[in-house]
Amino acid sequence: YPVAEGGAGLRAALDRCRAEASAAIDDGVNIIILSDRHSTSELAPIPSLLFTGAVHHHLVREKTRTRVCFVVEAGDAREVHHMALLLGYGASGVNPYLAMETIEDLVAEGTTAATDPEKAVAAYVKAAGKGMTKIASKMGISTGASYQGAQIFEALGVGSEVIDECFTGTTSRLGGIGFDEIAEEVARRHRRAHSDRPEEQAHRTLE
């Protein structure tokens, strides 16, 4: 979505995603890829959990959710908890493409003990899968189908406008931020990624 439009642009983009998902189902599609790829200096990626929950609940309200599966391509999914949230809010599968590309880059630069990028990525995928199994088992859930869309979470610091639209039914006792604040956080990260002087960050070390 156009990052300069802030919260209004984010809301409009979510509306567009929901409309496109409904149109795809009407066309007979049964697998939808929700992707945050192809951001530019003007277009920022919608947070993957936000658009996954938004589309999921939109289709639930339209009574068409069971006719389609979601595969989420998420550059912001890195940890097991990120995968758990995406699956818990409706994703059928997650492709954490940026995490995988980062692992391949670390191997290529020789900054990790791993020497085979394919094996390193496979180890990451295996670890994420085992982590998901551990989370589900601790909740007493024995199948992936039972976990998918179960929303076994409580929100902290998320306001009612976001909860009602994207995470319907999730408890948020304290209230908190809305779309405008989320858009500002996205804009902050976007400015760092598309700096006017990128050479200043090109060789920095990670904190």
Notes on the structure:
The chain has 207 residues and is mainly alpha-helical. Helices cover 51% and strands 6% of the residues. It has 8 helices and 3 strands. Strands 1-2-3 form a 3-stranded parallel beta sheet, with helices on one face. α1 packs across α8, α3 crosses α5 and α4 packs across α5. The longest helix has 22 residues. The model has no long low-confidence stretch (mean pLDDT 91).
Q: Can I get a quick summary?
A:
The chain has helices at 6-26, 48-62, 80-88, 97-109, 117-138, 144-147, 160-166, 179-193; strands at residues 31-35, 69-73, 93-95. It is mainly alpha-helical. Helix 1 crosses helix 2 and helix 1 packs across helix 8 (179-193).
Helix-strand blueprint:
Elements: H1 6-26, E1 31-35, H2 48-62, E2 69-73, H3 80-88, E3 93-95, H4 97-109, H5 117-138, H6 144-147, H7 160-166, H8 179-193
Parallel strand pairs: 1-2, 2-3
Helix pairs in contact: 1-2, 1-8, 3-5, 4-5
Keywords:
3 strands, mainly alpha, 3-stranded parallel β-sheet, 8 helices, 207 residues
- Structural class, by secondary structure, is mainly alpha
The whole-angstrom Rg is 18 Å
Q: Roughly what is the average pLDDT, rounded to an integer?
A: 91
Number of strands: 3
What coarse outline follows from CA principal-axis ratios? globular
Number of helices: 8
Contiguous runs where pLDDT drops below 50 for at least 5 residues: none
**Strand adjacency order, main sheet:** 1-2-3
- In whole angstroms, how far apart are the ends? 29 Å
Strand content: 5-15%
Range of helix content: 40-55%
Biggest sheet descriptor? 3 strands, parallel
